């Protein structure tokens, strides 16, 4: 019997625990703006990787240039958040999740500030596992797409801190630096919940 790598074992734990996981759902989310994202996992040469995108620099976009997961605002035609995550992934990076993979679960809702207005926005992350190789065909909203090893994110030595300021407010926040790419904020909160299932 071939021994599994720590990453393969971690992925198996994630899949098993997502089956029984009860994510926090905001009961009031149907009355506010909603978004959904796709956290996509792949098994490549016995190594597990997570797909992240770097958002293109756009004036007026509070998440401009940030590392994130493919996703976006729920349209009227989207019956569920899952459909939103799948549609936005196809639009942003050309991956048709309905054929290339399957959803293995969802994580807790995260409350965020929207692009405009005072009303909060609820973001729901859905976790997918690919079962076939895919190519990336990024649209104008995406500067780049990068596969990040799960082993990198599981290594506590890789965790760093950053200084964040808005007006007079100054904070020290956790982050990762994957090369020159900084992973923090909402995306890091999603990753932390995912890794807590390992």
From TrEMBL:
Molecular function as annotated in GO: coenzyme A diphosphatase activity
Organism: Zhongshania aliphaticivorans
Top enzyme class: hydrolase
Domain Nudix hydrolase: start-end pairs: 32-170
Pfam families the record matches: NUDIX
Enzyme Commission number(s) of this protein: 3.6.1.-
Sorted UniProt keywords: Hydrolase
InterPro entries in alphabetical order: CoAse, NUDIX_hydrolase-like_dom_sf, NUDIX_hydrolase_dom
Regions annotated as coiled coil: none
Name of the featured protein: Putative Nudix hydrolase NudL
